[in-house]
Design goal:
The complex is a heterodimer of chains A (543) and B (322). Chain A is an all-alpha fold and 543 residues long. Helices cover 66% and strands 0% of the residues of chain A. In chain A, helix 8 runs parallel beside helix 10 and helix 8 packs antiparallel against helix 11. By secondary structure, chain B is of the alpha+beta class. Chain B has two domains: 181 residues, Cupredoxins -  blue copper proteins (Immunoglobulin-like); 108 residues, Cytochrome c-like domain (Cytochrome Bc1 Complex, Chain D, domain 2, Orthogonal Bundle), CATH 1.10.760. The chains are: A mainly alpha (543), B alpha+beta (322).
């Protein structure tokens, strides 16, 4: 593990203590971030493995690689693992955990022990999920739609439900910790208008985690109760209403999309500012758009239900509201683009990911306009069009943001530089592999191929083959960074304190930072993204 | 136009062209937006790449620009919204005189019944040019009736009726998919819609082994189950007279008014005490679990036939069915 990382002599959070106990009982936000990094990487590769099996099955129209039931379990567990055990904790629990206190000039999060508790809850949930996977799995789709999940599925619905229920509390506690920390622990002079946009976006994320996740918890509990005690909540033969489930589920699960994408936007703002050497264009608008996304995000859930049997008029209202939430997302894209104007741009690995993010997120967002249009949604919902759309947001957006951020702050986290040329190469592979995997799915969707199909009519095969080919390329793009990050921990060039010459308090302390982050408590007397007063580096560090 | 594009689904219903038109508009719009943004990024990235002797120019922002790129997109979005809503409104409003087909979905098959009495499994025969309304329910989990060539999709729920409609315009055989995940053989719950010229369709209708119309089958179930002892057609019995009630408002015992649509009739058979008609006692036995979905379909069709000739698809009930 990361204990092997030692920068020359200087005492830091990595070399202060050694041994497994010093990690498992740590209350240092930076160490907890690394615990999360290791655990979510593990789940990412499990979820990715399921995805590859799904793509391999879809190489041919016939269901021939795995059984139908196995296939149904694969896409269910791919979704559940990726959403609840990778995407939701990814940027907040790793980069956010590491950076929120550093960026605001605090020693740690407000509740260090609760932070550790979050990780243990996550691990408990993860172990339960793994047990569920290894002892038969679950086949409800990640959406748990009733009455299939409560009265018909013969798989481990209760166990998966309880695992996600517990993981939810991990997410709630992280959100709580961030909200309190951002309110109460900012360094002297760090006013709200001086906060990095990373913090604004994480603040908005945390609010969603706090307000939305309990609803998911309650919903899953009701599913478990109906399944175990046969209460009639969602099952119409017992007097329940299956649409009630969908309302409750999407009331969390739509805002959950913003739990995934807002932190990626957070990374984006930092990276674009640094590598254009500029303050973000329209700081206030970018900050407020995060808050607007969090608020509007709670008002659009029923756009997942246009063909589910809701009334004509509620469909009209939710369609209109869905367009409102698109505006703040558009604002962000325009502002990042405008930030590049008259900048001084360098093409480092994080910046390449940022370019990729803007491109893919733009496409994901624009195809969202298709889905919010009622007449079109009827045709393309529950097809591969929607699969492509949300992968452009969650993989093209959130995962690109996560990888970009990991590269950007890796020198700070590990104290080592990663090999830059290999980073650029991997970023390119990810971008190409991603598009080849998911772009054909838009076409498949409009042609009418339904999602969650184990076998499909032969006219859809060519596009499916392209998609499967893309997924193998994408897999290479994801394995590469894992290899060279691990490599760099021992063999990478020691990182200077501020390798990118970036603004922000996290770069004013050593790499890796000392346990309490700053040798002297920082005082902030400058605005965010103060690149005007930071000279450019002579040479962009290259290994 | 755009009739035999590669990678494009067949277009075989009256509404499909409208959906395609909006889709093509959105493709052009987003294509333009992508091109604009990507061009800007590429141009900026090349023109403002780091060069010795030049430093970045700090620009705080521009409220005018921010307002422009918030308000203009919002305006465009509202155009898309109205356009999409207009198509949706048409999709959800069947013509009054549409002929009806009853569909019962179950794991993992589609059972379809024509008013004339023809029954089909995983296959639906319809003539070109006729408005067809689908009245659908599920026997178990949620399914979804999806015909890509018609651009229609509607979830099929247990415990209630949902509806959809189409008018086929081009003879041919088209995919019918279940689009809501429904268990092991979800991807096997497929079938086909056969669109025929009217003459061929008539031949197909007369060639089938119909065992009487849906309503007449319903009438015999009505007799068998003894409904007729209380619901009498010539005089008021212990239950309400059902002649002419379909599609009409009904005054309930608790003061509410409901429209006697398919869902109301269904509910009144399965759990009669839920909405008791004013002036009657809640004495009818519960039929939940005692009648199959097919029998229910027959009963509903029979009750509707008692309100003929203007029975089918009275205009007030469409939104209720949803």
């Amino acid at each position: 593990m990361a204990t092997a990382v030692i920068t020359p002599e200087r005492e830091n959070y990595l070399n202060q203590e050694y041994g497994i106990k010093s990690w498992l009982l740590t209350v240092d936000h930076k160490r907890i971030a690394l615990l999360y990094l290791v655990s979510i990487t593990f789940f990412f590769f499990i979820g990715g493995f399921f995805a590859l099996l799904i793509r391999l099955e879809l190489l041919t129209p016939a269901g021939d690689l795995v059984q139908a039931d196995t296939y149904n379990k694969l896409f269910t567990m791919h979704g559940q693992v990726m959403v609840f055990f990778f995407l939701i904790p990814s940027i907040p629990a790793v980069l956010g955990n590491f950076l929120v206190p550093l960026m605001i000039g605090a020693k740690d999060l407000a509740f260090p022990r609760i932070n550790l508790l979050s990780w243990y809850l996550y691990i408990t949930a993860g172990v339960l999920m793994l047990h569920c996977i290894c002892t038969g799995g679950v086949d409800t789709g990640w959406t748990f739609y009733t009455p299939f999940s409560t009265a018909f599925s013969n798989t481990k619905v209760v166990e998966a439900g309880v695992a996600i229920f517990i993981a939810g509390f991990s997410s709630i506690l992280t959100g709580l910790n961030f909200v309190v920390t951002i309110h109460r622990m900012r360094a002297p002079g760090m006013t709200w208008s001086r906060l990095p946009l990373f913090i604004w976006a994480h603040y908005a994320t945390s609010v969603i985690q706090l307000l939305g996740t309990p609803v998911l918890a309650i919903t899953l509990l009701l599913v478990v109760f109906e399944r175990v005690f046969h209460l009639g909540i969602f099952d119409p033969t017992r007097g329940g209403d299956p649409l009630l489930f969908q309302h409750l589920f999407w009331f969390y699960s739509h805002p959950a999309v913003y739990i995934m994408i807002l932190p990626a936007m957070a990374v984006e703002s930092e990276v674009v500012a640094c590598f254009t050497r500029k303050r973000i264009f329209g700081y206030n608008f970018v900050a407020m758009s995060s808050i607007a996304i969090a608020v509007f995000g709670f008002l659009v859930w029923a756009h997942h239900m246009f063909v589910a049997g809701i009334s004509l008029y509620s469909a009209l209202i939710f369609s209109a509201l869905s367009y409102l939430v698109a505006v703040p997302s558009a604002i962000k894209v325009f502002n990042w683009t405008a930030t590049m104007y008259k900048g001084s741009i360098t093409f480092t690995t994080p910046m390449l990911y940022a370019f990729g993010f803007i491109g893919l997120f733009t496409m994901g967002g624009l195809t969202g306009l298709f889905l919010a249009a009622l007449g079109i949604d009827v045709h393309v919902t529950d097809t591969y069009f929607i699969i492509a759309h949300f992968h452009y947001i969650m993989v093209g957006g959130a995962v690109m943001g996560y990888l970009g951020g990991l590269h950007f702050w890796w020198p700070k986290i590990s104290g080592r530089m990663y090999p830059e040329w290999l980073g650029k190469f991997a970023a390119l592979i990810v971008f190409l592999g991603f598009n080849l995997t998911f772009f054909p799915q838009f076409i498949l969707g409009y042609m009418g191929m339904p999602r969650r199909y184990w076998q499909y009519p032969p006219e859809f095969q060519v596009l499916n083959v392209l998609s499967t080919a893309g997924s193998t390329i994408l897999a290479v793009g994801y394995v590469l960074p894992m290899i060279y990050f691990l490599w760099s921990m021992r063999y990478g060039k020691p990182a200077p304190d501020n390798p990118w010459n970036a603004a922000g308090l996290e770069w004013k302390t050593s790499s890796p930072p000392p346990t309490f982050n700053f040798d002297q408590p920082p005082v902030v007397n400058f605005e965010a993204y103060d690149y005007e007063h930071i000279p450019e580096v002579e040479e962009v560090p290259v290994v | 136009m755009f009739d035999n594009l590669p990678l494009w689904p067949a277009r075989a219903s009256a509404g499909a062209g409208n959906v395609d038109a909006l889709y093509i508009f959105l493709l052009l719009l987003s294509g333009f937006m992508c091109l604009a943004i990507f061009t800007m990024i590429v141009v900026f990235a090349l023109r403002y790449r780091r060069q010795p002797g030049r430093v970045a120019e700090q620009i705080e922002g521009s409220t005018a620009l921010e307002i422009t790129w918030s308000v203009v997109p919002l305006g465009i979005f509202m155009v898309i919204f109205v356009w999409g809503a207009f198509i949706f409104f048409q999709e959800r409003t069947p013509p009054r005189d549409a002929s009806e087909i009853y569909i019962v979905a179950k794991q993992w098959m589609w059972k379809l019944e024509h008013v004339e009495g023809q029954r089909e499994i995983n296959e639906l025969h319809v003539p070109v040019g006729r408005d067809v309304k689908l009245i659908m329910t599920s026997q178990d989990v949620i399914h979804s009736f999806y015909v890509p060539a018609f651009r229609i999709k509607q979830d099929v729920l247990p415990g209630r009726y949902t509806t959809a409609w189409f008018r086929a315009t081009k003879p041919g055989v088209y995919h019918l998919f279940c689009a809501e995940y429904c268990g092991s053989q979800h991807s096997g719950m497929i079938g086909q819609v056969v669109v025929m010229e009217p003459a061929q369709y008539e031949a197909w209708l007369s060639g089938g082994s119909s065992s009487g119309s849906l309503a007449s089958n319903g009438e015999s179930i009505f007799q068998q189950l003894g409904c007729v002892t209380c619901h009498r057609s010539e005089s008021q019995g212990r239950g309400p007279n059902l002649v002419g009630i379909f599609g009409k408002p009904v005054q309930l015992e608790d003061g509410r008014m409901v429209i006697a649509d398919e869902n109301y009739i269904r509910e009144s058979i399965l759990s009669p005490s839920a909405k008791v008609v004013k002036g009657f006692k809640p004495i009818m036995p519960v039929f939940q679990g005692l009648v199959s979905e097919e029998q229910l379909t027959g009963l509903v069709a029979y009750v509707k036939s008692l309100s003929a000739p203007s029975a089918a698809g009275s205009k007030t009930q469409e939104s209720k069915v949803q």
